[in-house]
Task: inverse folding
């Protein structure tokens, strides 16, 4: 079975209870986008889903019912997954938008994760320190940091129990041997609740948008035994390189090329040694604390290895 056929069948199953959808129609729409317009399958799938959402008068939250599975925090390593969590409310923060009812930190024995509850979902508020069974929440990702969103389909049940919240942070010391593509000056989708990185000016969910500039480094640390992929957010990237966002925008404007920012970053940090601490999400370590240390290996050898990756 081809990837397009498989995706078409999954979309058909999502909408069959809402619309009289023919799986062949779904397949043709996907095939046209992928074959004729060279749209990546993931983006084509989202486009076709949006078509049927509009036709059915639904929003994306409504697709989650019936497709969720039980998970723990450390299991969450991909966006747009529907899961059930049993977790403790570790902390609540002040929302920065009227569209958000609550935002804070959930935790279980395997670690912690950010949550957001939308105001339009009209859910009962969570209380700090309480433990809940949360059914039908959707996962999201920003700079390698995964989170969950509570929506109108989320079921909330308070439990008479406690959870000892685990610590999912780790530490690695090593040489920064590679800076991957997608580093430097990037643009993110400006739509409410979406922080996806734009590809050729397009968001995989919202199409062509005027993006908002941001900085990040997707790097690889080598401790001599194994390598670890690390994501440095804007703050960590500015501290690491000494290049602030406004300066990066000026560099790109002067050169008429955004790649000069990543090139300058490579010249500044590649081959240096760092101690990085933060949570591990999927294959990435998210840099919360970064300290430059004195290396013990041959710097020229490190750079040769970096350039051969």
Result:
């Amino acid at each position: 079975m081809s990837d397009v056929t498989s995706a078409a069948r999954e979309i058909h199953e999502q909408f069959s209870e809402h619309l009289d959808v023919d799986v062949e129609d779904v397949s043709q729409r996907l095939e046209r986008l992928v074959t004729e317009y060279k749209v990546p399958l993931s983006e084509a799938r989202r486009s076709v889903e949006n078509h049927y959402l509009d036709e059915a008068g639904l929003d994306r939250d409504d697709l989650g019912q019936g497709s969720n599975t039980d998970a723990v925090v450390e299991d969450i390593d991909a966006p747009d997954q529907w899961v059930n969590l049993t977790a403790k409310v570790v902390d609540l923060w002040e929302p920065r938008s009227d569209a958000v009812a609550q935002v804070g930190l959930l935790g279980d024995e395997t670690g912690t994760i950010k949550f957001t509850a939308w105001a339009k979902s009209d859910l009962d508020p969570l209380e700090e320190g309480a433990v809940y069974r949360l059914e039908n929440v959707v996962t999201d990702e920003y700079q390698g940091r995964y989170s969950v969103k509570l929506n109108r389909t989320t079921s909330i049940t308070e439990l008479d129990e406690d959870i000892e919240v685990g610590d999912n942070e780790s530490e690695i010391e090593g040489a920064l041997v590679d800076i991957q593509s997608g580093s430097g000056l990037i643009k993110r989708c400006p739509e409410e609740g979406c922080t996806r990185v734009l590809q050729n000016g397009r968001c995989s969910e919202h199409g062509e948008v005027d993006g908002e500039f941001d900085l990040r480094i997707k790097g690889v640390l080598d401790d001599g035994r194994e390598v670890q992929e690390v994501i440095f957010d804007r703050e960590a990237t500015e501290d690491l390189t000494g290049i602030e966002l406004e300066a990066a925008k000026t560099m790109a404007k002067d050169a008429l090329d955004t790649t000069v920012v990543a090139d300058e970053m490579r010249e500044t940090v590649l081959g240096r040694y760092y101690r990085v601490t933060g949570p591990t999400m999927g294959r990435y370590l998210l840099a919360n604390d970064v300290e430059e240390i004195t290396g013990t290996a041959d710097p020229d050898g490190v750079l040769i290895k970096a350039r051969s990756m």
Q: What stands out?
A: The domain at 169-307 is CATH 2.40.50 (OB fold (Dihydrolipoamide Acetyltransferase, E2P)). The first helix runs from residue 3 to 15.
